[in-house]
Write a structure and sequence with these properties.
The complex is a heterodimer. Chain A is mostly helical. Chain A has a single domain, classed as F1F0 ATP synthase subunit C (F1FO ATP Synthase, Up-down Bundle), CATH 1.20.20. Helix content of chain A is about 90%, strand content about 0%. Chain A is elongated. The relative contact order of chain A is 0.21. By secondary structure, chain B is mainly alpha-helical. Chain B has one domain. Chain B has 6 helices and 4 strands, in the order E-E-H-H-H-E-E-H-H-H. In chain B, the strands form 2 sheets. Chain B has a two-stranded antiparallel sheet with strand order 1-2. A two-stranded antiparallel ribbon of chain B has the order 3-4. In chain B, helix 1 crosses helix 3, helix 2 crosses helix 3 and helix 4 runs antiparallel to helix 5. The chains are: A mainly alpha, B mainly alpha. Chains A and B meet through helix 3 of A and helix 2, helix 5 and helix 6 of B.
């Protein structure tokens, strides 16, 4: 019970920051794409890498909450 | 350990379940998934070497497409030595992609052996997607780690590689060396945890949706997981590529002293004939 609550809190709170970060990253990438559609090839790789690094934080929260649920 | 006790047998456990043992060797269901993925890729390679023609047939161009696309990305953003590691990056990409998508096939994770343990029955599926097992992802991350460390040593020499750990003003070395070591090791953890967390969370999500609404709704999430499986394979391959490129680029930093220390994989060098990545 306690660890389930902790898992939910860890995931929910841990997703706030990456959510904001991903939103900023995607909005900037779309903005750049709208300004310069030919640059999609050049934007793509740094964009995916940035998203992956921002998402990693949420994944850490996910791993923590999975540990809280499964490992007792 | 079942997470859905509400009459649902389809569960996801955090570690791969053992199927049978041969001597001291325990065979788990994620190994079946990994072997299936390898077999599929080997079949693809066999087809390529036997049946490939200069003018590709429909199936051949379908198989060629991801390889050409990924190789194009590595060529444009992998720096000048991209030919050295393009095969490794491609292997990461294809292996993880196939391993992820195997988990979405019907029957994977739902067909298995029912164990009657304490507190109800429990399904042990025969096949589990390999990347939903931390052993698999950690193994891949270790390969990537060895690859980028060995590229760094090969290009910069042992001295050059170790001096990277000490940082630029030498008097800061006692502070910077542990930070650099930790940041190298954290790449290992973040690479493996990212892939495992995404695929495992996807499996849990699918099982949850299957338990909540068994009809039609899981289809949407299977489509979502198709995208995630692709993106995670791409991310792993691109990160491995970037780490290798960074390990090589540190050399240029010492030579020319012009590029910044944390050089991005030079998107400025992109040729106008960049692949249609979008």
């Amino acid at each position: 019970m306690d660890s389930n609550l902790a898992a939910g809190l860890a995931m929910g709170l841990g997703a706030i920051g990456p959510g904001i970060g991903l939103g900023i990253a995607v909005s900037k990438a779309m903005e750049a794409l709208g300004r310069n559609p030919e640059a999609s090839g050049a934007i793509f790789v740094p964009y995916v890498l940035g998203i992956a690094l921002a998402e990693a934080v949420a994944i850490y929260a996910l791993v923590v909450s999975l540990l809280l649920i499964f490992v007792k | 350990m079942p997470i859905f006790a509400a009459g649902e047998l389809v569960t996801v456990s955090i570690k791969a379940e053992p199927l049978f043992t041969i001597g001291p060797f325990t065979f788990t269901n994620s190994m079946v998934g990994a072997l299936l993925a390898s077999a599929l890729l080997l079949l693809m390679g066999w087809y390529f070497t036997r049946r490939s023609t200069l003018v590709p047939s429909r199936l051949q161009s379908l198989l060629e497409f991801p390889i050409e696309w990924m190789a194009g990305i590595v060529e444009t953003s992998g720096g000048r030595m991209w030919r050295g590691f393009v095969t490794l990056v491609l292997t990461f990409f294809l292996m993880i992609l196939v391993a992820n998508w195997i988990g979405l096939l019907p029957g994977v994770g739902t067909v298995g052996e029912v164990h009657h343990a304490e507190g109800g029955a429990e399904l042990v599926p025969f096949v589990r997607p390999a990347s939903a097992d931390l052993n698999f992802t950690l193994g891949l991350a270790l390969i990537a780690f060895v690859a980028f460390v060995s590229w760094g040593i090969r290009i910069n020499g042992v001295r050059g590689y170790l001096s990277e750990f000490l940082g630029e003003p030498r008097y800061m070395a006692p502070l910077m060396a542990p930070i650099h070591v930790i940041s190298e090791l954290s790449r290992l953890i973040s690479l493996s945890m990212r892939l495992f967390g995404n695929v495992f969370a996807g499996e849990v999500l699918l099982a949850t949706m299957l338990a909540l609404v068994p009809l039609a709704v899981p289809t949407v999430f299977i489509g979502l997981e198709l995208i995630f499986g692709f993106v995670q394979a791409l991310v792993f391959a691109l990160l491995a590529m970037t780490y290798i490129t960074l390990a090589i680029a540190e050399h240029a930093h010492h030579d020319e002293d012009s590029s910044p220390h944390v050089a991005q994989p030079a998107p400025a060098e992109t040729h106008p004939s960049a692949p249609e990545a979008a």
